[in-house]
Design a protein that fits this description.
heterodimer; A: 432 residues; mainly beta; Immunoglobulin-like; B: 386 residues; mainly alpha; Outer membrane efflux proteins (OEP); 13 helices; 64% helix; binds copper (II) ion
Chain lengths: 432, 386
């Protein structure tokens, strides 16, 4: 079926939305229950804060429809961004299919400028590769194009524009493609999480990512969200867990998981043979790369999962600020406070920067610019977590039911297993 | 207030504090002329001086007026006493001068003296605000320098940045010294205009906000018309013109004249049958023309100064918002305290500009009022949006 007959059968371009013969597998946001394993035996992927794209079967072909458009989306409470994305979100919904599937993907461009989609990592005919000008004409504003190819191998892939690429990536246009193995049970896991690393420069007080920024980004996100708005991952003790991490930022991210050692089992090039895997607790995901990690969640607890670049686990912060660590600011502060009658000026940074989290909590007295995020945030069972950006948690529990993705709350530590404060008198005689 | 209390025998007996600041070098006025006015002078410095009180005082004691009062047998003390019976804000043209009479020069002298005194009062009010802003700017610079010293002490700041902060603090001190000097100069000028003892450190009730821009300010035709009807100088010139025109000019004898219009050409013209050269008319025309020019010059000056003041006022909320935004950014560690203080200093500099522009607008208006005969076409509407 060519594009014309398809359009003829469904009517005007505006009504291109595909009927979902196969129910959209809306990803289980925290607090819902995921579908159990599908008929082919694979566990549906859980895109953090995201969803899988619905499709319909048409004469043995899986038909998807991606709509490139401008959207508004919360990055974290207190900040909304105006992204370019797909089907109402950034990243776009995850395309999920089975090895061997024939897929037909309609792409409608509702952006003000042309675009294309490149299917990163998928082996396909050159004319389907989505490089505007090189492998196809640009999809102009208002046009719909169709791509069709067969998924010849399983794995983790991405989709993103290959047109005005720097701008369109900077605006949030990206998504994941998950191809499950055809053979039932092959590479089976109990939980399968996926996320895209995306970075943005959104000046405090603005909403739209700055497309001219090349290196100095201030929002480091998993799926265009920052901590604490990033969905928590959960697993039952002993379950096999997979996390697929795709990087479309402009720098590398050493992704670190506490509480387990993992193997890197796949890249966007395919699966890594077992002989080529070795234990890790941090794996670097370079620009334009995907790393798939797998592990047995054998230790209950609340475990941090984050980028190990410490300024990537942080909200926006200014550069070149005066270094005030260890500085006595008392005299100057008294003077400055007199210059700001009726407002609250507070000295900061003499003892460290952790006080920033308290400052952010005093939003009424010490307001931040509109539409921005505090430098550090998050409340845990023991107090402020002082994180932001690329940070979330993996919660492993003995009593979590299979297929239950609900956040179980904070971990109840067995007695005697939490670090405790030592009495000052006892500390005197400690070895040194 | 800082005054030198050097006792003089004459006033020691009364021992009233106000007497202690009586003029040190000038003999007191004879009783019955201006002694009461002189004694009351220091009292004025105890409270902030309103513009109206300054105008009333200037009317009585202005150095340019006292000799004229003397000529006409007006005792300043009596004048002052009479003025106490005029309630509200004194309107010189309405309450004091009355209708003009031909050949009266006191009227214009009074108007000029009042404008001078008003100008001195506006200058002092602006200088007070300017000194306050300069003091705040100095506080900001000192805070910055103190932070820099503390940073250097903690091992966080290198010498070049520390020196820059110290230099900036010294610069702010210099600017404050300028502002303080301008304040003292303004006090001296006002003291002189109001016949106050030289040592008085007078203060004003503050520079008033700019009223809504009056529509007549930009209507030159209407202003000229208004001046012709209200300014005594205009009336006199118009009368002179009418008189000159009324004189029937006799014809003069026909003759040939040579006009020096070309290098090698001699143009001949016959001015026979022309009226005699109208010297009186010409003088009247020239006088009128000069008056019109003076009105227009004052109008243009006032309109321009007003516009400058409006624009300077329009910058104020923007600069305040910029400071507020900097504080918000500081709160989020998105900007440093140095940026915050920089915005504050810019805001304070903007405030100084605004005060100076507002002062100039008021002064220009005062001098325009003189050109218009001491009154304005319509009262100013205060409290409007500039
Ligand atoms: Cu990172």
């Amino acid at each position: 079926m060519n594009r014309r007959t398809f359009l003829g059968s469904t009517g005007a371009l505006a009504s291109l939305a595909l009927p979902l013969t196969h129910a959209a597998k809306a990803a289980p946001p925290a607090g819902t229950t995921a579908t159990p394993r599908s008929r082919t035996g694979h566990t549906p992927v859980t895109t953090l804060n995201g969803r899988a794209l619905g499709y319909r079967m048409n004469d043995g072909v899986k038909e998807f429809h991606l709509i490139a458009e401008e959207i508004e989306q919360e990055v974290a409470p207190g900040m909304v961004a105006r992204f370019w994305g797909y089907n109402g979100g950034s990243p776009g919904p995850t395309l999920e299919a089975i090895e061997g599937d024939r897929v037909r993907i309609y792409v409608t461009n509702r952006l003000p400028e042309h675009t294309t989609i490149h299917w990163h990592g998928i082996l396909l005919p050159a004319g389907m590769d989505g490089v505007g000008g090189l492998s196809q004409p640009q999809i102009r504003a208002g046009e719909t194009y169709v791509y069709e190819f067969t998924l010849t191998k399983s794995g983790t892939f991405m989709y993103h524009p290959h047109a005005d690429e720097m701008l369109q990536l900077a605006q949030g246009m990206m998504g994941l493609i998950i191809v499950h193995p055809k053979r039932p049970g092959e590479r089976a896991v109990d939980r399968d999480y996926a996320l895209m690393l995306a970075s943005y420069k959104i000046d405090p007080g603005t909403r739209r990512p700055d497309p001219s920024e090349m290196t100095d980004f201030n929002l480091w996100t998993f799926n265009s969200r920052t901590f604490p708005a990033i969905q928590t991952m959960v697993a039952r003790t002993g379950e096999r867990v997979r996390i697929r991490v795709a990087n479309l930022t402009m720098t590398n991210h050493p992704i670190h998981l506490h509480g387990v050692d993992f193997r890197v089992t796949g890249t966007d090039g395919g699966w890594i043979p077992e002989a080529g895997q070795w234990p890790e607790v941090t794996t670097d995901v370079a620009v334009g790369q995907i790393r798939v990690i797998e592990f047995i969640a054998n230790a209950p607890g609340d475990w941090a999962f984050h980028c190990h670049k410490s300024h990537h686990t942080m909200g926006p912060m200014g550069h070149g600020l005066p270094n005030l660590l260890g500085v006595d600011q008392q005299r100057a502060t008294a003077r400055i406070q007199q210059l700001f009658p009726g407002e609250h000026y507070m000295a900061m940074g003499s003892e460290g920067m952790a006080e920033m989290q308290d400052m952010a909590a005093m939003g009424d007295m010490m307001p931040l610019p509109p539409n921005t995020l505090p430098m550090m945030t998050g409340e845990g069972p023991f107090g402020a977590i002082e994180m932001g950006g690329m940070f979330t948690t993996l919660k492993v529990r003995n009593d979590l039911a299979p297929g239950d993705y609900r956040d179980p709350g904070w971990y109840a530590h067995p007695p005697g297993t939490v670090a405790t404060r030592v009495d000052a008198r006892r500390a005197d005689g400690l070895p040194r | 207030m800082h005054t030198q209390c050097r006792m003089r025998p004459l006033v020691a007996a009364s021992a009233a504090c106000i007497a202690l600041v009586a003029p040190l070098h000038a003999a007191p006025s004879p009783a019955g002329f201006a002694r009461e006015v002189e004694i009351s002078g220091p009292d004025l410095a105890n409270n902030p001086l309103s513009l109206d009180r300054a105008v009333r005082r200037a009317l009585v004691t202005h150095p340019a007026l006292q000799p004229r009062y003397l000529e006409r047998g007006i005792a300043p003390d009596a004048l002052a006493q009479a003025l106490t019976k005029v309630p509200g804000t004194l309107d010189i043209a309405r309450d004091v001068l009355g209708p003009s009479t031909p050949g009266d020069t006191l009227r214009s002298a009074v108007l000029a003296a009042i404008a001078e005194a008003q100008s001195a009062w506006y200058t002092l009010a602006a200088a007070q605000a300017g000194r306050d802003a300069a003091e705040q700017a100095r506080q900001a610079a000192l805070a910055h320098a103190e932070l820099a010293e503390a940073q250097a002490h903690a091992g966080n700041l290198a010498e070049p940045e520390l020196l820059a902060a110290r230099l900036a603090a010294l610069q702010a001190e210099t600017e404050l010294a300028h502002a303080a000097s301008a304040l003292r100069a303004a006090q001296r000028t006002l003291n002189s205009q109001l016949g106050l003892p030289v040592t008085i450190e007078a203060g004003t009730t503050g520079l008033p906000p700019l009223p809504s821009r009056p529509v007549w300010l930009d209507d030159t035709t209407a202003l000229l018309d208004f001046a012709r009807r209200h300014a005594s100088a205009f009336k006199q010139a118009l009368r002179a013109e009418a008189t000159a025109e009324a004189v029937q000019a006799p014809h003069i004898t026909a003759r040939t004249i040579t006009l020096p219009l070309g290098h090698n050409t001699t143009l001949l013209a016959d001015d026979g049958d022309r009226t005699r050269w109208p010297a009186a008319q010409l003088a009247a025309h020239t006088g009128l023309r000069e008056l019109e020019d003076a009105v227009l010059a004052a109008q243009q000056q006032a309109a321009f100064a007003w516009r400058q003041a409006e624009l300077a006022a329009a910058r104020q909320p923007l600069q305040a918002a910029a400071t507020r935004a900097a504080l918000q950014r500081y709160n989020g560690m998105l900007a440093g305290v140095d940026t915050l203080l920089e915005r504050k200093r810019e805001q304070l500099a903007g405030r100084q500009d605004e005060v100076a522009a507002r002062r100039d607008a008021w002064i220009a208006l005062a001098y325009l009022q003189v050109q218009l005969g001491g009154t304005l076409p319509a009262p100013l509407v205060t409290g409007g949006q500039p």
